[in-house]
Write a structure and sequence with these properties.
heterodimer; A: 246 residues; Ubiquitin-like (UB roll); Fumarate Reductase Iron-sulfur Protein, Chain B, domain 2; two-stranded antiparallel ribbon; B: FAD/NAD(P)-binding domain; D-Amino Acid Oxidase, Chain A, domain 2; eight-stranded mixed sheet; six-stranded mixed sheet
Chain lengths: 246, 394
């Protein structure tokens, strides 16, 4: 669908959301069901916020931007990694939608996970702006030598959730951090010292060589970072540095 | 009984975890006060995280709302200094496409000059060299120091820095009652939303920083805040259609701005007035208008793949008579309810916009320290904020 042809509205219908619930002191998580009215444009996040307002204010959900730019509402929708704010509330064949927190990060409450162990995996420093490659035919104003834009990566953790290596090894740096290193390495203007430091970082036991090339991260990424391809490119750089052939 | 509040460990409770509350927590902790902030949901989940991500130059307000324009350009410069790396360094263009737009140009340039906003007038060819996808029929473009900001990560830096300096920041904690004694707010009953456990937080002063919800919170203290929650619809399309922020050169209107953000382009916005800021819909005709009006600036908006459409409620200050919200000022207001309503120990900060969050916090904190009888100057103009990633630090 393009922005110019929003589909016509039809009658509202009711869906059953099966939502993962967990509180800090709970022994085990449980699943709770909610009936939620939805329309054609209802997102999974809309449905969860409806539950908070009308059924259970104790349901913990993170959200901020509502347009796939902040990365806070990542979760598993029917078992697949998704940003709830841009995922339509479409049921499975049995009329239900299952909602679970993303995997491979500690659950704090319900759908809220601890992102500190995600952010800690990135190499430092971790700036979030980069050169803009869009509209290459455009010139700059005289007093700008380049345009900057925010990184594609929105630090949502969906790639780490989908990663089969991260599922068995919580020391693995993971797709987002490795893709970030490759992104900085490919950018013109990265200093020799910075390149060496990043390559050393990527060459560690917990980094580029741990990837099993399942490409699940690229499948899961909502922001077109293509982490798996970047990890492969990173390995190529490491091999070249070692003087081996690809 | 004379209540002593002029102690150095004065405790301030801030209600509301948006950009304003975060900036205020930062300001007050730098001034040496003890700060607790409560947010009923997730930090930046109300209006703050949802705006289109514009760091205003102030040019949008230069003709009709001079106070806001001056606030914006001052804060624009300060934020770039204290939050380096949180902005796409891209500037903005105000683009004229009709004769009416051209009629607006002289007043626009004059208003920018009077507000201290630098401008550079570009002819159509020059403008198209900078932004090749602009409407080729444009008549003029004026360059101004707008920029794109990350609507969540920039405010998170205030939260991160405030916490590192000792502020207690509590999310998923809602205020259910404000306790008063002898015409003074003395405590708040707060409920942990997840556990349902209620506790009482005593404070020398309570600040209501709940944006479009500030009318609701003020009613808990028995006072009226003339807030008009005024939602707007925004549309995000895939692809970066411009590098600079593209504005329509005219008085404020629907669909007159396109903000590039990462690999998206965000078209905004519309404006209406609601009673309950929790009850926002996304009217399909507003989305259609974003496409219609946005494509007058950049025709490619029409065919760009849809990513998201959403609403956010501005916290406008104004009379009950306002019906579209456009006629209301975008400046902000600190209300000391002791002088305005005879309720002491309670201050509201509202109105304004993301660009002016630090300035709002400064003015509000000035009131807070004055009311508490303290002498503690603002230090936020010079203090560089921690990176957003520190927000997640355990």
């Amino acid at each position: 669908m393009t922005a110019a042809d929003p589909s016509a509205a039809t009658d509202p219908r009711t869906l059953r959301l099966r939502v993962f619930r967990f509180r800090r002191d709970d022994q085990e998580p449980r699943t709770e069901e909610f009936e939620v009215p939805v329309g054609d444009h209802t997102t999974v996040l809309d449905a969860l916020r409806w539950i908070q307002r009308h059924r259970d204010p104790t349901l913990a959900v993170r959200h901020s931007c509502l347009h796939a730019s902040c990365g806070t509402c990542g979760m598993l929708v029917n078992g697949r990694e998704a940003l709830a704010c841009v995922t339509p509330a479409d049921p499975r064949s049995d009329g239900t939608i299952s909602i679970q927190p993303i995997a491979n990060l500690p659950v704090l409450t319900d759908l809220v996970v601890d992102m500190s162990t995600f952010v800690d995996r990135f190499p430092q420093p971790h700036p979030i702006v980069r050169d803009s490659e869009f509209l290459p035919q455009a010139t700059h104003p005289d007093d700008h030598d380049r345009y900057l834009r925010f990184e594609d990566c929105i630090e949502c953790g969906l790639c780490l959730s989908a990663c089969p290596v991260a599922a068995t090894d919580d020391t693995y740096r993971g797709p987002a951090a490795l893709a970030y290193a490759q992104r900085v390495l490919e950018q013109a203007g990265t200093s020799v010292e910075q390149r060496d430091a990043l390559l050393d970082w990527a060459d560690g036991d917990d980094a580029a060589w741990r990837c099993h090339a399942a490409f699940e991260c690229t499948e899961a990424c909502p922001s077109d970072v293509r982490p798996a391809e970047r990890i492969m490119a990173l390995r190529k750089l490491l091999r070249r540095r070692e003087g081996r052939t690809a | 009984m004379v209540r002593s509040t002029a102690s150095v460990d004065a405790h301030v409770l801030i209600v509301g975890g948006g950009g304003t509350g975060g900036a205020l927590a930062h300001d007050l902790t730098l001034r040496g006060l003890r700060v607790t902030l409560v947010e009923r949901g997730e930090f930046t989940s109300g209006t703050t995280g949802r705006h289109h991500g514009l760091l205003h130059s102030g040019a949008r307000y230069a003709v009709n709302d001079r106070d806001s324009a001056v606030e914006c350009i001052e804060e624009n410069r300060i934020l770039r200094r204290i939050a380096p790396g949180s902005f796409e360094e891209n500037d903005g263009l105000f683009v004229g496409v009709t004769d009416e737009d051209m009629d607006y140009l002289p007043a626009f340039l004059e208003g920018c000059e009077a507000s201290g906003i630098p401008t550079q007038v570009l002819g159509p060819e020059q403008a198209l060299r900078l932004e090749p996808l602009l409407n080729p029929d444009l008549k003029v473009a004026v360059r101004v120091p707008d920029a794109t900001m990350d609507a969540m990560r920039m405010p998170l830096r205030f939260f991160a820095t405030a916490r590192a300096n000792g502020a207690e920041l509590l999310n998923h904690v809602a205020v259910t009652e404000l306790g008063t004694s002898a015409g003074r707010v003395v405590d708040a009953t707060v409920r942990d939303v997840v556990t349902g456990i209620e506790t009482t937080v005593e404070a020398d002063l309570v600040v209501n920083a709940t944006g479009p919800w500030s009318g609701q919170v003020a009613r808990m203290a028995g006072v009226d805040v003339p807030i008009r929650p005024s939602p707007g619809v925004m549309l995000a399309v895939r692809g970066r259609l411009c590098n600079m922020v593209i504005n329509r050169l005219h008085g404020s209107g629907d669909g007159d701005i396109i903000v590039p953000q990462r690999a998206l382009s965000v078209v905004g916005t519309s404006s209406w007035v609601v009673e309950d800021p929790d009850d926002l819909d996304v009217p399909p005709d507003h989305v259609a208008r974003m496409i219609e009006e946005g494509s007058k600036l950049i025709p490619a908006v029409r065919d760009a793949p849809f990513r998201a459409a959403w609403s956010a409620a501005r916290p406008l200050i104004g009379s009950r008579d306002a019906d579209s919200g456009r006629e209301l000022s975008r400046t902000f207001k600190t209300i000391d309810h002791a002088s305005d309503d005879g309720v002491a120990g309670f201050v509201t900060i509202t109105g304004g916009k993301a660009t002016t969050l630090r300035g709002m916090a400064e003015v509000c904190a000035d009131t807070v320290v004055r009311v508490l009888g303290l002498d503690a100057p603002c230090r936020t103009r010079e203090t560089v904020l921690l990176p957003h990633t520190e927000f997640y630090a355990a």
